[in-house]
């Protein structure tokens, strides 16, 4: 095959396979935690689950900070595969630990080592920033939003398929094979295949990297430099607030569906995760449609935020499984904001800074959530007996707040539409 062909043509199989593996792991972990925390007292069980999830998620978010920055800098020096390959090593090893925990029946606390191993190798922050950097350097500014959301679409379809199958695979076991071992084994195997693919078959378009370096000298008229910095700051603020809303709401939702009145099992958990992955497809279709109608990126972000704010607000009052899926259906466009914000950021920085910019965005999400995750957990535990859905209303409020910075970016960009950018040789 021609090594100079576009890298985005080759990144899709990796993204697909890795997300199927991740879906298997998520369902397996969720059900293992539920089984180990089982208690006749439902409130005690919920507190045990949320306490474990809080500690797990905080370690998960804190550990990758330094490794991800180092890997991003290596990637921006031209070694674009490194920020992808190294995290996949962490994925493979940490997912293998869950399998050992299931087979050997180790204490639940052993699983706190999963985010430690995962984070020391850069974690999702490095992996996804590396993928986004590869996609960005191989696409022009005009088509970048669609290219990025197309990668997210592959991610979503894989998550949908993996989540649908995960609940059924978790329930497969025999006298000799413990429940969840088969599902976890498939996750480990798929990550191993992803690691081999990324290390030996993933191809980087070096021509696009050289073109990107050649076009970095841009002469921008009147105030452009300061305007870019302000826009970057506003985009970071908007992304952080929206991530707090989404991550906080989804973390609590993982525990909420396991309690009465929903009281889901492995199959329902898989279907619920699949419903979340389906949003990647609907969001992709929406971006394609809005792009053809010449809708601005900032407007698309706002549409996605409104969709999530309405859906998560309705989730606060969900008491049955059909109501859950109805609430999910309202969030059809909820996955538009993040890839579009990444696209907007990529248009404000140099090509050789894509990696560090994207990884700093991911890490800013993690730092913010180190504060908000325990707050969400405490609020959820305090309102278990009165109104457990209150945390979802809180997520809706954060989403509304995240609309303010992006609307300012839209106004600033519209005001400067008359200016012309001069490309240098």
UniProtKB/TrEMBL annotation:
Keywords: Membrane, Transmembrane, Transmembrane helix
Membrane as UniProt keyword: yes
Family annotation (InterPro entries): MFS (IPR011701)
Topology versus the membrane: Multi-pass membrane protein
GO MF annotations in UniProt: transmembrane transporter activity
Record's GO cellular component terms: membrane
Domain of life: Eukaryota
Subcellular location: Membrane
One of the Pfam families matching this protein, by short name: MFS_1
Listed transmembrane segments: 84-104, 110-132, 153-175, 181-204, 232-257, 269-287, 299-319, 325-345, 357-379, 391-411
Assigned protein family: Belongs to the major facilitator superfamily. SLC46A family.
PANTHER family referenced in this protein's UniProt entry, alphabetically: THYMIC STROMAL COTRANSPORTER HOMOLOG, ZGC:174356
Protein name from the UniProt record: LOW QUALITY PROTEIN: thymic stromal cotransporter homolog
Organism: Cyprinus carpio
Lineage: Eukaryota, Metazoa, Chordata, Craniata, Vertebrata
Gene: LOC109051459
């Amino acid at each position: 095959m021609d090594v100079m062909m576009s890298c985005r043509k080759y990144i899709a199989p990796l993204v697909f396979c890795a997300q199927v593996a991740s879906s298997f792991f998520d369902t397996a972990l969720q059900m293992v935690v539920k089984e180990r925390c089982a208690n006749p007292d439902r409130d005690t069980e919920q507190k045990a689950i949320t306490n474990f999830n809080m500690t797990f998620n905080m370690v998960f978010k804190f550990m990758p900070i330094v490794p991800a920055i180092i890997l991003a800098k290596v990637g921006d020096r031209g070694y674009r595969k490194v920020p992808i390959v190294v995290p996949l090593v962490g994925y493979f090893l940490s997912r293998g630990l869950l399998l050992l925990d299931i087979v050997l029946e180790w204490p639940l606390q052993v699983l706190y080592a999963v985010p430690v191993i995962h984070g020391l190798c850069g974690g999702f922050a490095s992996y996804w920033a590396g993928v986004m950097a590869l996609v960005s350097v191989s696409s022009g500014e005009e088509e970048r939003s669609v290219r990025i959301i197309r990668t997210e679409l592959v991610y979503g379809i894989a998550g949908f398929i993996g989540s649908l199958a995960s609940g059924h695979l978790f329930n497969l076991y025999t006298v000799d094979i413990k429940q969840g071992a088969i599902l976890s084994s498939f996750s480990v195997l798929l990550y191993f295949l992803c690691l081999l693919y990324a290390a030996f078959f993933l191809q980087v378009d070096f021509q696009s990297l050289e073109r990107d370096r050649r076009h970095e000298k841009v002469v921008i008229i009147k105030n452009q430099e300061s305007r870019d910095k302000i826009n970057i700051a506003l985009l970071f603020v908007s992304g952080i607030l929206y991530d707090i809303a989404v991550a906080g709401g989804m973390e609590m939702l993982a525990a909420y569906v396991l309690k009465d009145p929903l009281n889901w099992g492995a199959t329902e958990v898989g279907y619920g995760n699949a419903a979340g992955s389906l949003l990647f497809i609907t969001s992709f279709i929406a971006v394609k449609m809005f792009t053809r109608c010449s809708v601005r990126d900032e407007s698309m972000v706002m549409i996605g935020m409104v969709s999530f704010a309405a859906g998560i607000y309705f989730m606060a009052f969900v008491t049955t499984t059909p109501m859950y899926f109805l609430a999910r259906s309202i969030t059809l466009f909820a996955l538009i904001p993040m890839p579009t914000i990444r696209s907007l950021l990529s248009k404000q920085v140099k090509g050789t800074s894509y990696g560090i910019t994207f990884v700093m965005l991911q890490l800013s999400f993690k730092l913010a959530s180190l504060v908000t995750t325990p707050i969400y957990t405490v609020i959820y535990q305090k309102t278990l007996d009165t109104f457990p859905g209150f945390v979802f209303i809180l997520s809706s409020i954060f989403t509304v707040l995240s609309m303010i910075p992006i609307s300012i970016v839209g106004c600033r960009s519209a005001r400067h539409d008359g200016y012309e950018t001069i490309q240098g040789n």
